[in-house]
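Risk register update: the risk of archive-format incompatibility is retired. Evidence:
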Amino acid sequence: MSVTSKVSQLFDLVDQREFRLCQSINQLLRYRPVRRYFSLVSRLGDGWLWYLIILAMPIIDPERGLSIALAMVTTGLLCTVLYKFLKHRLIRERPFISFKAINCAVPPLDRYSFPSGHTLHAVCFNTMLAVASPQLALVLLPFTVSVAASRVVLGLHYPTDVAAGASIGGTLGVLATQPLVDLFSRTV
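Archived output:
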């Protein structure tokens, strides 16, 4: 049995166990303000807010902002390559594809579910900012949490997709901040 088919069997089992939780969270879409809020958060989580922050970093922090922005761009590209590789290798269908009782509120950016790329990027960038600009990271923390929640509310991901995305993103964010810490300690 191939690794892909073993992973597929594992996902089938986990999908069945997560279905009820996904369905109950997805029911929040019945409330128009909830649907609008999470749809907007999802759209901003496509990258738009992060692009603005990256572009603004040299203005926010004239001394270190360019270094922070370049680190975020580099790490963001690595995040994209990694999550796309994992999605196409592990092949987990999205909840709304596997279960007709789960509604999809916004079109997905790609086909597969594991891990959540939105969550991966949001947690990675927020982790990086926690080191480089703690006040900004604190302000953005509710957005980051909302991005993660939006993935399940909108019917696009299972909770384990979000947890995996957050774990990978947090790890990459921590690893990416070490060079920043070294650079900042030399400039002090």
